[in-house]
Amino acid sequence: MYQAGFRRTAEQSAFTGPDEDFLRSLELVMRISSASADDLARIEEPTPRTCQMNATGVRCSDTYCASCAPTPRTASW
């Protein structure tokens, strides 16, 4: 991860032009859609790492993520 970060920083430093043009050159595509049942495992997997600074110590389990799945009354993005 560190090496990938160093490479990204080097690529950005070598790029001539504004940061906005550098970001455009990456041709990133972002898709926003409603979460499906297939997405639940992908949603649950990073939660232990992203909650490390959570003072409550509560971790989101796959059961909890499943309880947040979209219903006719709710949406998950």
What does this structure look like?
The protein is mainly α and 77 residues long. It is 45% helix and 0% strand. The longest helix has 13 residues, at 2-14.
Low-confidence stretches: none
Element-by-element helix/strand order: HHHHH
Q: Estimate the helix proportion, in percent.
A: 40-55%
Q: Rg, please?
A: 18 Å
Strand-residue proportion: under 5%
Globular, elongated, flat, extended or rod-shaped: what is the shape? elongated
Question: Would you kindly provide a brief summary of this structure?
Answer:
This protein is mainly α and 77 residues long. Helix content is 45%, strand content 0%. The protein is elongated, with a radius of gyration of 18 Å.
Keywords:
77 residues; mainly alpha; 5 helices; 45% helix; elongated
Question: Can you lay out the helices and strands and say which pair or pack?
Answer:
Elements: H1 2-14, H2 19-25, H3 40-44, H4 47-50, H5 62-67
